[in-house]
Amino acid sequence: MKNESLTIKSNGTHEIEIKKSRFLCTMARIDNENQAKKIIDQVTKDNPKANHNCYAYMLGDDDHIQRESDNGEPSGTAGVPILEVLKMNELHNVLAVVTRYFGGIKLGAGGLIRAYSNATSTTIDSLGIVKLVSKQELNLLIDYNQFDRLKYFLENAAIPVEETNYTDKIELVIAVSDSEFNPLITQITNLLSDQFTYKKGQYKIFEVPYSREDRQKDERK
After folding, report:
1. Where do the structural domains in the chain lie, given as residue ranges?
2. Whose CA, among 5, 60, 127, 145, lies 20 to 30 Å from 102?
3. Helix residue ranges, H only, the chain
4. Pairing state of beta strands 170-176 and 65-69?
5. Rounded to whole angstroms, how far apart are CA atoms 86 and 216?
6. How far from chain centre, in Å, is Cα 18?
7. Most distant CA pair in the chain, distance
8. Ranges for the UPF0029 domain (predicted)?
């Protein structure tokens, strides 16, 4: 995956009603197309009386797989609007299935586009978004008399300690991105007068909360 990407915080379903039609949007993280198809089939099975189960999904680091379906709605009024909302929110490896129970009032092409878009966007708001960040574990080995200084520094830098091990020395395990690594080592070297050792560990994926304010900051960069 990319060093950073966005996805939904959790799988789930959210419902809205527009002119007596019910729109239930089910969203899920996916890893491949087979998984997407199984979820679509399950949603269809769970809603046997629904009029439509329209969907869209994107897969791959560069979103090279993009699929959408109107599932009987007029062409371009359901699948594409769902897909466009996923694109607008930059959600990767995510499936959205919008199930419609017709309420007897026709919405027209424009109304359908707005309805399927709103069903998807409100579900994203309901579930929340997280940023998936690839970070490398870093093992810091220090003396006991350095612990308070380093702990205070890490807290002020908003770097959580994943693990602390006590032997003849103290080992702290933290995680940093590639861009953070060199500046952080320089800062800790200065803080502890170069009286520490470190070892790089494995890369892991961390989930970081992501808000509209964060998106605005990213867009200004």
Report:
1. 4-127, 134-205
2. 127
3. 33-46, 79-88, 108-127, 147-156, 178-191, 212-220
4. unpaired
5. 17
6. 28
7. 74
8. 142-195
- Reported as a single tens digit per residue, the pLDDT across 153-167 is 999 999 999 999 999
pLDDT in tens, 88-124: 999 999 999 999 999 999 999 999 999 999 999 999 9
Q: In what helix (H) or strand (E) does residue 83 lie, and over which residues does it extend?
A: helix 79-88
Mean local confidence (pLDDT), 46-67: 95
Pairing relation of β-strands 94-101 and 129-142?
Answer: unpaired
Q: What percent of the chain has pLDDT over 70?
A: 95
**Among 3.30.70.20, 3.30.230.30, 3.40.350.10, 3.30.56.10, what is the CATH number of 4-127?**
3.30.230.30
User: Are 40 and 95 spatial neighbours (Cβ–Cβ below 8 Å)?
Assistant: yes
Question: Parallel, antiparallel, or unpaired: how do β-strands 170-176 and 163-166 relate?
Answer: antiparallel
Backbone φ and ψ for 64, nearest 5 degrees, come out as: -70, -15
